[in-house]
Structures are given as structure tokens and as C-alpha cells.
Specification:
The complex is a heterodimer of chains A (161) and B (279). With 161 residues, chain A is mainly α. Chain A has helices at 2-20, 34-46, 48-65, 72-85, 93-97, 100-121, 129-147, 149-156. In chain B, a hairpin with a 4-residue loop joins strand 4 (147-155) and strand 5. Classes of the chains: A mainly alpha (161), B alpha+beta (279). The A-B interface holds A 16, 19-21, 23-24, 26, 29-31, 48-49, 52-53, 55-56, 59-60, 63-72, 74-75, 78-79, 82, 85, 118, 120-122, 125-127, 132, 136 and B 13-14, 17-18, 21-22, 24-32, 37, 40-41, 44-45, 48, 51-52, 55-56, 59, 116-123, 125, 153-154, 161, 163, 168-169, 186, 188-189, 250.
Chain lengths: 161, 279
Amino acid sequence: MEHRLRGALIVFVLLIVQTTFMPFLSVGGFLPDLLLIWLVITALRRGQGEATVAGFLVGLAEDLLATQLFGLAALSKTVAGFFAGYFYNENKTDQTLGSYQFMMIVGLSSLVHNFIFYTVFLQGSDVPLIQTVIYYSAATTLYTGILSALPMFAFSRRVPA
Amino acid sequence: MLERLYTLFLNFREYVLLSAFVIASFILLSLNDKPQIKQLRAILTVTLGVVQEQIAFIPRYVSLGAENEILRRTNIELADEASQLREARLENLRLRRLLGLKARPGYRFVAASVVNKNLTLLRNSITLDVGEADGVRASMPVVTDAGLVGVVIAASGTYAVVNILLNVDFRASAKIQRSRVDGILAWDGSSLILKNIAKTLDVRPGDVVMTSEYSSTFPAGIRVGLVDRVSEQEGSLFKHVVIAPGVDFVKLEEVFVMVAEPDPERTALERNVEEFLTP
């Protein structure tokens, strides 16, 4: 129960940081997704079921604060949480979080998330769908993946040598 | 039976959860236009706006010195321009009266600070710290001294959300100042373009783009930017005209909302004609 309250508090802070400060770190208009990184950490620590629920709730909170399609972030984060949960191994949690495997899982989950997000997001617009989805998904995934190195280094210090 | 179902649920718990939440997400997607959802989002936007307003000074403080310098220079240039414009306005009024042309509706400018930028690349929007209490309503244009910023899409008591030019949902009627060629301003996800410009029409890089008289949302003559590139696409009747917006959206901090109701007579007439023509 305590870890859920702590999780809710972390998500609240990350939402504020994501919407207020992250725009200043935008590269070519692309922003890393802090909440997705947190979701992958949750998936690797708590498993697929909890990550699916967390993905939906975090996405819903994101939807409520954004002007995009309502329910879209909930959908993409639910699937991303479920996907990241495949890499859960309760005996190797710290090793996974503190190694390059973590960056790879963030990258793959981000790719799944962004692919769903932009495919639905672009429906009904004039832009070339496949080309734009690939371009935006790849760029956002790359940035999120690079930023995930920070928690990875933090976790790697915890892993006993 | 129940026990078997429960065991089945436990065995496939993750898949059941995924299915349930995916279905819930699709239901939420179908509820997008419900007024209750819009109201809830407006309340939360206001709450977030209050928090962001308290901490927004931190990044602003860094750029204050450079901004002051630019503002001082702009002030001198504008003072000179204002005196020339006063002369031109008097002349314009005199000539319009001579020709019997209708006077343009006046606008009140409400200054606003950008308290949030939602930069999702395709549907970029900003949140302003002014709202219905300041007379701001949906469909009002937003500008800066550099030109057109966007249009208000939603307003609560003290906050307003603006769709900026760089948004796939944004459309505005615009024209080339030099050659008076008309087109539709749109964002294609990577560039601001002027659509529907036939290959035979005269558009060159460096031309100034302004809003045209054909829009009931934007007053004519607001600067949009400069023509950056003109290319011809094979198999198309139209030119591909890329516009460099006058406004730097990355550094955007203060804007003005042009507060004025659209001409009700014109809006009603255009709506009637549209209804009449729609089968």
C-alpha cells in the first residue's frame, strides 16, 4: 500500500516536471517521456499486472492535463506497461535496472507506446501517416532511451559487485 | 463454477487486465466531445496552470537580461513605426470615408503570459493565464508583435488554451502581401505551409504572408511570416509553399489575445448560406 502512495506522489511530481520544465529540454521539438521511464521501472519491479494498471492510471492523468485525444495516453501507456512487464524477473530486478538492458527495455516500450500514440493521434489529419509515425516514434524513443541512462546509472550503484 | 472462473482469471490475470483497460481506453476515446469531460479537463488545466505559474519564473529569470535588451530596441523601433502608422491611419480613415467603405471592427488587446506549452509536435498548444474573467472566449485570435500565434480553443475562468500555428488542426485564410495571392495556412507536422496555391500564381521566397479578409476568426492584415521555400510537386496543380513563422514559439512567453466578437451579421449570413448549400 505504501509503495502505491509513494508511486502516486512520484507520478504527480513527474507530471509537473514533464509539463513545465521538459519543454525547455526539447531537441528539435522532441521531448523525452519521464512517465514512461517510471512505468518501465514499475514493470521491472512489480510485474506485468501492476504495470498494466499503473500504465492506465498514469495515462489517464496525462490525458486529463493535455489537449490531445482523451483516452489516448491511457491506451498507449496501458499497452506499454503490459509490454514492459514481459521483462519482469523478480530474481534479477536490480541487475536489470542497473544495466544497459534497462535502456533497451525503455527504448522498446517507448517504441510500442509511441507507435500506438501517433497512429491514433494522426487519424483524420492531412499528414502522411506511416512516414510521420515512424519519424516521430523513432525520435521520441531515442530521446527517452538516452534519458533513461540517468536512472540506470543510479540503480547500477545499488547493485552489489 | 465460480471457483473455476476465478482460477481462470488468476491464470490469465495480466491479459484480462490488459483487455479491460484497452476497452476502457477506447470508451474514453469515444467520450472526447462530452461536455462533462471538457469541464473536468478545464478544471484540471486551471489547477495545473496555478502550479505552473508559481514555478514558471525559474526558466524565465535566466533569459531576462537578453530579453530586456531586445525589448529596449523593439521599443525604439515601434515608437518610430507608431508615429508613421498614426499618419497612415488618419489618411486611411479619410480615404475610407471618401469611398464609403465599412469601418473595420475594433479589438481590445488582453496581455497574457504563457504558463504552459504542450509541445507534442503535431497538435502544439499553449496555456495562457487569462480566461473568461478577462473577456477571453474560444475562437479569439492570439498575436504578438512578431505576428500571429494561434487561436483560443477553450477558456475557463482564468486560463485559456490556444492552438498555435504549428498544429494539424489549425487553419487560417492567408495571403501573400505583395501579389495578393490567397491560400490556406496549415501545419503538416513538420512545416507551416500555404496550401492551394496554383502553379501559375506569383509567390517568391521572402514574400510577406498576412491573414486575409476571408476569415471570420482572424482580422485581415496580421503578419504570419515570410515565404521560406517554393517548390513545384510533380503531378500536382499546386505549388508547395513553406512559410517561416514570424513568431519564435520556443521563446514565446507573452502574447496578446484580440478580444472581439466576430461580426454577428456576417457569421449568421455565412452559417445560413452553408446550411442552405449542405444537402
